[in-house]
Amino acid sequence: MKPVIVAEKPSQAKAYGDAFKTVKRDGYMEVAPNPIFPEGAFITWGIGHLVELKEPKAYDPKWGKWSLASLPILPDEYQFQVARGKSTQFNIIKKLLKETDTVINACDVDREGSNIFYSIYRQTGVRGKQIKRLWINSLEVDEVREGFRNLRDNKEDLRLYEEARARQISDWLVGMNGSRLYSLLLQERGIHEVFAIGRVQTPTVFLIYQRQKEIEAFKPEPFYEIEGKFKAAKGSYKGKAKLKAKERKKAEELLAAHELTAGKAQGHIKELKTAEKHIPPQPLHSLSSLQATANRKWKYSPQKVLSAMQKLYEKKLVSYPRTDSRHITSGEFGYLSAQVESYQKLIDAPFPIASRTPKKRFVDNSKVQEHYAIIPTKSLPTARRIEGLPQDERNLYEEVMRTTLGMFHRDYRYAETKVVTDVNGLEFHTTGRTELDKGWKSLFPTSKEAKQDPPLPELALHEQVAAAIAIVEGMTTAPKPYTEGQLIAMMKTCGKFAEDVADSEILKEVEGLGTEATRSGIIETIKRHNYIEVKRNVVSVTEKGRMLCQAIEGNLLSSPSMTAKWESYLKKIGKGEGSSEVFLATIGKFIEKILQDVPEQLRSNGMPDQMPALQGTAIAICPRCRKGSIVSRKGSYGCTEHANGCKQSFPAVFLKKRLTAKHIEYLCTKGKTPVIKGFVSKNGKKFNASLELEEGKLKIKF
């Protein structure tokens, strides 16, 4: 019987088909008999996630409506369904699987690929087939054929599927319960918004919020240093005493202790040492290091980098991009070494090869597990093909190529000179750097050179110098907001933010929040939910994001440590050392706890019973035109049909009383509000009254 190869998506299936002689059919390809598949084979494909978890209402009608009374949503067993609009392709796969005895999982070589395959396989109802796993790092023809010659068994793959499935269900449980809980509780306070909660996305938003709070709370403070300007026989230079004081008085006292005052003095060069230093070539790229680099150089978002790298992978120009490794094995080094000159010519970067010996900094078989670092493939494109790539793909391909070529280049070398200038026993320190050999840095030409210290003049030990001493004042600066590229690094290294040492260690072990494959998607998700916005590459928390963070503060949902502990156990499931049943039972207990704790936490976090609506939030149908919606704006509420002539509006503050979204909703739907406390009359007296809407105007009703 012909084996059935299941790819994750059509482009991947096409890459497999390129390695064989095939005939295109409807929803699959037929592979002609060949040495690897003597009887031939079928290649079919998913369209990403063909199978998904059912909606809550499919389990119980009461879960179809959002209400606090219906929570928690904790099904006894989890049910899956074919995603809407994808049944045709699913049925093609199902028919092929029924008619074979061997199935090859050729989805992406990661946990998600394992999940996609087994979700489809189990949903078909097909059982008892022999399942093999294709595990490759490149879509080149040679590597595809080699991979099919050396298929793995599915033992590890099944464990990865169990891990990914437990992660998928836990994300679903936290999202379904947490989103309803917070949305409904905030709705009671007048905020008519959906607040999506996620196991990873919510603590990510909270970390950005914490940085923003630090910036807002920051108060610049002066500090004082003592600076010396020195004139030697062959030139001038500057130095600083080892002092950074909060009070000017400390600097004055230090000068007085050395019988100095701010002004002119004589000094001599007490120490003069020059040492040659070198910086080895930078490590090869993982996905996250490439995302951070591309954001710094070209302001590309992490998602744009992943998308472009996926295209380059499918074009067989780079190795598998969703990798967290920065090392390769001796096998990859072998073909890279053999083609160095060709790679150099391709990007017009000639240099003498410094070494063809594999160095542990780059080549370490023990540090490569599922995937190796991102490198160029054996396939050598023409210069014309590279020029024809979209600009983002070309930039990224060249970045990968230049970083790879760095392995064969010389170290960057410079001379570092340290000078100690003595003025009446007070030492001033100066460091100068002189570039000796650009080495591997010549592979990375930049539009503007990094700011360098001015070179030191020629100096001699014990040389007498004229000194001008001054106390200089500086100001402390606020922490900088994150860029999108820094968000990736922050998510990966957030263990340093954990106060508990054990939590910090767990976060290091699991490499922070999310994975190489998911971090860019998480950032896109929190942008889509309007929790953060990115302007000129600077990330800030929106009004809605701030409200979410105020609501979750003090809750485990705001804690990266909680997510890390879960991730640590999920990895145990992937290694066969943990149980998905135990994990999901823990998630169930967590959900029951937040249902119990959150209402009181909102009060202790200072969330008022009535809150002003978020700007732009739809509150009710406009009572005047009946077409638009009344939304919150700065300083007022107005109709979305304003541009088309509807003049209905409401003030945000009426008689010194802030009107909430709930008040506006009452006016739009019922024509009047309940009694509102705290209006202030023109003569300053407080009174209580209800408001009525008459011909679009507010009237007081006592």
UniProtKB/TrEMBL annotation:
Looking at the record's lineage, which domain of life comes first? Bacteria
Q: Which reaction does it catalyse?
A: ATP-independent breakage of single-stranded DNA, followed by passage and rejoining
- Tell me which NCBIfam families the record gives: topB (TIGR01056)
Give the family this protein belongs to, as stated in its UniProt record.
Belongs to the type IA topoisomerase family.
Give the EC number(s) under which this enzyme is classified: 5.6.2.1
Which InterPro entries does this chain map to? Topo_IA (IPR000380), Topo_IA_2 (IPR003601), Topo_IA_AS (IPR023406), Topo_IA_cen (IPR013497), Topo_IA_cen_sub1 (IPR013824), Topo_IA_cen_sub2 (IPR013825), Topo_IA_cen_sub3 (IPR013826), Topo_IA_core_domain (IPR023405)
Please give the GO cellular component terms listed in this UniProt entry.
cytoplasmic replication fork
The UniProt entry's GO biological process terms, in alphabetical order, are: DNA recombination; DNA repair; DNA topological change
Gene3D superfamilies with a match to the protein in the record:
3.40.50.140, Topoisomerase I, domain 2, Topoisomerase I, domain 3, Topoisomerase I, domain 4
Highest classification ranks of the organism: Bacteria, Bacillati, Bacillota, Bacilli, Bacillales
Instruction: Give this protein's Gene Ontology molecular function annotations.
Output: DNA binding; DNA topoisomerase type I (single strand cut, ATP-independent) activity; metal ion binding
In Swiss-Prot or TrEMBL terms, this protein is called DNA topoisomerase
Query: Looking at the keywords, is Repeat present?
Result: no
Q: Keywords assigned by UniProt?
A: DNA-binding, Isomerase, Magnesium, Metal-binding, Topoisomerase
Topo IA-type catalytic domain mapped to chain residues: 157-595
